[in-house]
Amino acid sequence: QTTYDVVALQEKWRPVWERLDPFRAGRREGAQGNPAPKRYALTMFPYPSGDLHMGHAEVTALHDVFARYWWQKGYDVLNPIGWDSFGLPAENAAIKRDENPAVWTYANIETQAESFKRYAISFDWSRRLHTSDPEYYRWTQWLFLKFRERGLAYRKNSPVNWCPNDQTVLANEQVVNGLCERCGAVVTKRELNQWYFKITDYAQRLLDDMAPLEDTWPSKVLAMQRNWIGRSEGAHVDFDIALADGSTTRVTVFTTRPDTLYGATFMVVAADAKLAAEIVAPEQRQELDDYLVGVRKESDIDRMATDRPKTGVDLGVTATNPVTGEQMPVWAADYVLADYGTGAIMAVPAHDQRDLDFAKAMGLPVRRVVDVPGAENPEETYVATVGDGTYVNSGSLDGLTDKAAGIRAIIEKLEADGRGSGTVNFRLRDWLLSRQRFWGAPIPVIHCPSCGEVPVPDDQLPVVLPDLKGADLKPKGVSPLAAAEEWVNVACPQCGGDAKRDTDTMDTFVDSSWYYFRYLDPHYEGGPFDPEKAREWMPVAQYVGGVEHAILHLLYSRFFTKVLHDMGMIDFVEPFTALMNQGEVINEGRGMSKSLGNGVDLGETIDEFGVDAVRLTMVFAGPPEADIDWADVSPAGSLKFLQRAWRLAGDVTSEPGVDVATGDVELRKVTHKVVADAEQLIESQRFNVMVARTMELVNATRKAIDSGCGPADPAVREAVEAMAVLLSLVAPYTAEEVWERLGHEPTVALAGWPTVDPALLVEDTVTAVVQIQGKVKARLDVAPSITDAELESLAMADAGVVRALDGRAVRKVIVRAPKLVNIVV
Ligand code: ANZ
Ligand code: ZN
């Protein structure tokens, strides 16, 4: 082509690449016929809602730098793509249009696939999968049943998060500040029978296994996971409660401060815990029931807020403090949560502000047991003290001054008396995975009146979703599947009697917890994945995706991987060796949204500037983890740069294969330094600087052609060839065209990373002499191009010069760069 026409370039090269299929994983040979070393590059797979948007363009442009760089470095790369295609967006859209969610879903997938292809991400399309394909969810169901066999999937009745708008339950991780993660409705609680994964069994391992990720995962994500898992060391303490009917029941509390047990003056039970209803005295029952109506509407965040007025109900019974023997009143309140710890606490108002506020509101006693130096007595000030101090009013603990020693001593005493024990508590809850919606993987369980819960036998998987043509998918609180009678009513696989299928479907986060295993061979029939291929390719070397998945998807995937390990299917315990979180693409300082009207359409942007300019802009905008404000970047500038790069290729007049060693040394040094730097910059994830260095190479080459060694010099060819390889990581169409103009066959994507000659990286230096009163006091190695000012400041800062001056005032400095500095005192 004689002009730089982006549309023509895209149309020219796409079919060529499709024919060459250069990014097919597993076909690359290494040296001497050995297999090439393998690397797995993963980008978080998209939901098929609408076409791709600017966010997809950003994350995949960044991700593709890794993948394409590895190809150039000689690796065999697995870079797959697929769709997370079950879930509420599809179902809600389908309800609006009154059609099967599959129609909308697969139409959007086609649109997005076409856009990804135009966008020229180096995906291996033969790995494509969709989680809503029966071929995929057969194995989601299989895994569910394996988890169930291991006691890791179970059903229980409990108060669960309920979104009144979506009419479905939510996992704790899907409740954000008390609101539904999807629709923003205030989440309430409902008592329901639901399926759970026992992720809590893995809490400690999920914490411990983060250690090796310290340098390769963003610290923010690790901190969020640690906080979410929420490990607290403390103790279980048993209290005997005398009930109204004369019997006694033993209630255990969890506390992180067992050492304050002598200061426990009352007990508080979560108002919505079963325990409250079990122990309440008859005359207080009505009051508790009335109170509960309000509590059920509150979010956990509100309940735990420290600044709220304290409310509660006296349950009319008393508990015995196991160390003081005192009778303590027992209350029900909302500030204690039913599903944390044991759902009951010992209240130590002197040293816990929420307990103190409650004591003040209800007129309950306060007793100080730690005298904190310099702090006033909370019994008088109503300010709880939490610091270290001397134990008082605490029996055998009195006089101790060390909190750890106090905790150790009381736990020893409790254990000796059989009244409690040291324990660890986690904030992490089991993962609620069942959903009362249609568009998900059916839970492969049959409920039989005689046999109970019966797993669907392996050879009957997948349990395929029924065709609900004309059925009402509108959320009603029970799964729409319940209406598919022919589908629901089945023979029990065990006894052959009449039985019913489970009508719930799985949370889509189950689908996405293992998709990166399925990519290894999406059509594998022998299991969810081919273990042999897992050994070859996994774990994932680099994962790229949004920080919004810090505790949901990433925690769940880590859990799944550990279970697969325990099942003996893999020999590693962490799925993602390295993680990168890209920033957000915003516009005019704010997130793009319909309501703000500041959205930028990806398709139109590509139509205007071309794929390469958009990709280059995404990578060049700043460090990968920083937000990109589209109002501050210049795709037009990117386009201009690409044009300059393309023009260079047309100016090269030497033939392919010329001996570059005879080329202009100055330009060669620039080329080799840029390539060496680019390698470092990619490894340290400073992709934007790598692009900036490529721009410098283009400028230096232009100068060499126009006013230096001239276009025929072999160094010019070397520079432009290196530039093509560097450009291939971000601007594949332009890079391919340049490569062709230089007389090479496609594809530049596999041309190989240029070899750096270390001899060309050595900077020339000259020796500058520093004199004081004409006597030589120092010699400095400096670049020949150093300026007078630079040389003067170097000389004045030199330790030998400073010593020789010995504080004398300098009258005059004469500089003759790069050779001489003369200081007159
Ligand atoms: C007595 C005590 C004395 C406490 C003291 C604290 C300070 P973390 O660190 O978050 O695990 N707690 C226990 N279960 C609770 C529940 N279901 N709802 C609300 N609060 C609960 O917090 C543990 C502490 O939170 C426990 O230690 C308990 O109060 C409270 F000077 O027990 B503590
Ligand atoms: Zn049966």
From TrEMBL:
The keyword ATP-binding applies. GO terms for molecular function: leucine-tRNA ligase activity. It is found in: Cytoplasm. CDD domains: Anticodon_Ia_Leu_BEm, LeuRS_core. It catalyses: tRNA(Leu) + L-leucine + ATP = L-leucyl-tRNA(Leu) + AMP + diphosphate. It comes from the Bacteria. ATP binds at residue 594. Residues 226-414 form the Leucyl-tRNA synthetase editing domain. Keywords: Aminoacyl-tRNA synthetase, ATP-binding, Cytoplasm, Ligase, Nucleotide-binding, Protein biosynthesis. It is an enzyme of class 6 (ligase). Its EC number is 6.1.1.4. Residues 17-214, 429-630 form the Aminoacyl-tRNA synthetase class Ia domain. A motif ('HIGH' region) lies at residues 46-56. InterPro entries: aa-tRNA-synth_I_CS, aa-tRNA-synth_Ia, Leu-tRNA-ligase, Leu_tRNA-synth_edit, M/V/L/I-tRNA-synth_anticd-bd, Rossmann-like_a/b/a_fold, tRNAsynth_Ia_anticodon-bd, Val/Leu/Ile-tRNA-synth_edit. Coiled coil: none annotated. Residues 666-787 form the Methionyl/Valyl/Leucyl/Isoleucyl-tRNA synthetase anticodon-binding domain. HAMAP family: Leu_tRNA_synth_B (MF_00049_B). Belongs to the class-I aminoacyl-tRNA synthetase family. This is Leucine--tRNA ligase. It comes from Nocardioides eburneus.
